[in-house]
Design a protein that fits this description.
The complex is a heterodimer of chains A (328) and B (256).
Chain A lengths: L4 E5 L1 E2 L2 E2 L1 H17 L3 E7 L6 H6 L4 E6 L8 H15 L3 E5 L2 H13 L4 E5 L1 E5 L2 E8 L4 E6 L6 E5 L16 E5 L9 E7 L12 E5 L9 H11 L2 E4 L1 H5 L20 E5 L5 H7 L4 E6 L12 E4 L2 H18 L1
Parallel strand pairs in A: 1-4, 1-6, 4-5, 5-12, 6-11, 7-11, 14-15, 14-16, 16-17, 17-18
Antiparallel strand pairs in A: 2-3, 8-9, 9-10
Helix pairs in contact in A: 3-4, 5-8
Chain B lengths: L2 E4 L2 E3 L20 E3 L1 H17 L3 E6 L4 H11 L3 E6 L7 H13 L5 E5 L10 H9 L3 E10 L3 E8 L2 E8 L2 E5 L11 H7 L4 E5 L15 E6 L8 E2 L4 H14 L5
Parallel strand pairs in B: 1-4, 1-6, 4-5, 5-11, 6-10, 7-10
Antiparallel strand pairs in B: 2-3, 7-8, 8-9
Helix pairs in contact in B: 2-5, 3-4
The chains are: A alpha/beta (328), B alpha/beta (256).
The structure holds flavin-adenine dinucleotide (FAD) (2 copies).
Chain lengths: 328, 256
């Protein structure tokens, strides 16, 4: 009997990442078509409470790997524990999120298992009994579709915020299988963790992103974007010009040498739309541009554009969105 | 301290992408650069070497034109370069890593540096695969590196923050933006680079037979994305435009 379609259930601080639900929804379809079971791998220190949600979103089984050694992600600890589990059960497919954790884990596990891995996929579909993986390459300027004919499991990481999430089925439960993990000897010793506390959503998971460029003219003006972001429940991003000027940290940079984002709405303020910036946000569902130069390249990709001074337009937008919110 | 840097030559970020008659990415006439993250890796290698002596070797898998990128690394200050040509063979990430690990395995090394990702094919997996093949610990996406006696302390980017990780040497470390500001080659560096060793190797030289370099994955097709449908400029004075935009997002796009 085939070992199933597997999804890595990534969690952070005891909360499942949204991409996990996206993966479950995509994998549920594959599992049904292939008549295999859908299994989630849940690892951490105190994470058993999340198994219920995984069941509601489609998992048939949850492999629960709990140990003190897995409290923090380490490449060695997680790679060893997850590889051992895969070796034991031999799934046919193993999907992870294209996140900081997911892509590190996926690459190490794939090599230990001597198998193929597709990175940053935006679509997975079954064609003539074979899974076809689609991924953007050359910063979104081309697409690649590929298959993994023999090696198993076939592995892929999937870009967050792209695949739809099926509604949960209340009362649906997964069988929970507790496994005592084998993290082996861990060579990475974590000496310190520094967290930036933010009330805003993570850039790669955000539904709406408000982003600023050189047109912001200075770090203090990012306050304006934060205000707009908070009205919308959005994340704040930046162009490289703004990051290089020291107005925003690199973790906020969107583009070819920053983050790739796919929000429903991307609002670009004072950003010219250089090809390297478009590489990071070109797959947004809707793009709004506010720029005082009518010839700016960003208008070529924007669904809606306002030619004007952002210092005039953004405060007005904040007002308008607030009004809308009050109306409910 | 001997340092090996894995360096990939990539398309310039400005490059326009077209397909050739076989339906693959057209490489003709495209200007090529050192993968920006690998430039950080070269720079970091040089800084470590300057503090601790030893040599920096840059290795690459690719065809003859990659020599240009390797020369640039030599001009920055690397000591020698090794280029392995796969001889026109299909190479996926697994095969690329297999070749790189074979070359690096034949060298003396304490630290292996790479980019966290190539900006073109960008699978973000070659360095991890090499680390696994060589049995070395890895730290990914590093923005600060302190090399100590027998270990390194690396600050890496994680979601919503940073962490400081210590690993024993030898280790693989991948560079993220912020690690350093790469230097430009000097005139003197460029002259010296011409005399530095550039070793060219084939898979046979490495003792790799055809059975060891079989790709795990296969391409079905490459294609260009459909152009985004043109949008519209919302006319009017700022106040008018702002309220029209909000209305459009609500009523047309239905996303607010
Ligand atoms: C290898 C490489 C990698 C790169 N990676 C990235 C990357 O990851 N991300 C990235 O963003 N860039 C990247 N770049 C840089 C990119 O080429 C551009 O330089 C950068 O995106 C420009 O940022 P910007 O649009 O903020 O600035 P500019 O191009 O200077 O544009 C500023 C815009 O603001 C407008 N403006 C000014 N004042 C106002 C105002 N008051 N109201 C409204 N509009 C105003 C101007 O009309 C202008 O269009 C990379 C470049 C290279 C070579
Ligand atoms: C089915 C398939 C067929 C392919 N066929 C071809 C082909 O015929 N010709 C071709 O040129 N490419 C081909 N590619 C692309 C090729 O596999 C990748 O370019 C290569 O494996 C490197 O992967 P990456 O660019 O994703 O590197 P990443 O994993 O994103 O790179 C991470 C880091 O690893 C190091 N690194 C990566 N590649 C190299 C390298 N070549 N030399 C030295 N260091 C490196 C660098 O430090 C880099 O920063 C193919 C890919 C697939 C999936």
């Amino acid at each position: 009997m085939p070992g199933g379609i597997w999804v890595y259930a990534e969690q952070k601080d005891g909360k499942l990442k949204k991409v996990t639900l996206e993966l479950l929804s995509a994998a549920r379809k594959i599992a049904d078509e292939q008549k295999e079971e859908l299994c989630a791998v849940l690892a951490g220190r105190d994470v058993a409470g999340l198994a219920g949600t995984l069941g509601e979103y489609g998992a048939d089984k949850v492999y629960l790997l709990q140990s003190d050694a897995l409290e923090n992600y380490t490449t060695d600890g997680y790679t060893s524990a997850v590889t051992a589990l895969v070796r034991e059960h031999q799934p046919s497919v193993f999907l992870l999120g294209y996140t900081v954790l997911g892509r590190d884990l996926a690459a190490h596990v794939a090599q230990r298992l001597d198998t193929g891995l597709f990175t940053d996929c935006v679509d997975v579909r079954l064609e003539d009994g074979q899974l076809v993986f689609k991924r953007p390459i050359y910063a979104g300027k081309a697409f690649f579709e590929g298959v993994c004919p023999e090696a198993r499991p076939v592995m892929a990481t999937v870009r967050p915020n792209v695949l739809p999430v099926n509604p949960p089925q209340a009362g649906r439960t997964a069988q929970v299988i507790e496994v005592s993990p084998q993290p082996g000897s861990i060579r990475q010793i974590i000496r310190d963790v520094v967290r930036q506390v933010s009330t805003r959503p993570e850039l790669t998971e955000a539904d709406i992103i408000v982003s600023g460029g050189r047109g912001m003219k200075g770090p203090e003006n990012f306050r304006l974007l934060e205000e707009l972001a908070d009205v919308l429940g959005a994340a704040v991003g930046a162009s490289r010009a703004a990051v290089d000027a020291g107005w925003a940290p690199h973790s906020m940079q969107v583009g070819q040498t920053g983050k790739t984002v796919s929000p429903t709405l991307y609002i670009a303020c004072g950003i010219s739309g250089a090809i390297q910036h478009l590489a990071g946000m070109g797959s947004s569902k809707y793009i709004v541009a506010i720029n005082k130069d009518p010839e700016a390249n960003i208008f070529k990709v924007a669904d809606y554009g306002i030619v004007g001074d952002l210092f005039e337009v953004v405060p007005l937008l904040i007002q308008e969105f607030k009004k809308l919110k009050e109306q409910g | 301290m001997n340092i090996v840097v894995m360096l990939k030559q990539t398309f310039d970020t400005e490059a326009r992408i077209t397909l050739d008659e076989k339906g693959k990415i057209n490489r003709e006439g495209v200007s090529l650069i050192i993968n920006p993250y690998d430039e950080f890796a070269v720079e970091e290698g040089l800084r470590v070497k300057e503090k601790s002596k030893g040599e920096v070797t840059v290795v690459s898998v690719g065809e003859a034109q990659v020599q240009e990128a390797l020369r640039q690394a030599l001009a920055m200050g690397a000591d020698k370069a090794i280029l392995v040509s796969p001889g026109g063979m299909e190479v996926d990430e697994y095969v690329t890593a297999t070749i790189l690990a074979r070359v690096i395995g034949s060298l003396q090394y304490d630290l292996i540096l790479a980019g966290w990702r190539a900006i073109d094919d960008g699978s973000a997996q070659v360095a991890a695969r090499v680390a696994e093949i060589l049995g070395l610990p890895m730290v990914n996406m590093v923005t600060r590196l302190e090399v100590g006696e027998g270990s390194v302390l690396a600050t890496r980017e994680i979601e919503g923050g940073n962490e400081v990780v210590e690993v024993p040497l030898p280790a693989v470390v991948t560079a993220q933006k912020g690690l350093n500001e790469p230097r430009y080659p000097t005139m003197r560096g460029i002259m010296q680079a011409k005399k530095k060793p550039m070793q060219k190797m084939t898979l046979q030289d490495l003792g790799l037979d055809a059975g060891q370099v079989v790709p795990k994955v296969r391409a079905v097709k490459y294609y260009l994305p459909p152009p985004r449908k043109p949008g519209r400029i919302i006319p009017g004075e700022a106040a008018e435009a702002a309220s029209a935009l909000v209305r459009a997002l609500r009523e047309e796009a239905k996303i607010i």
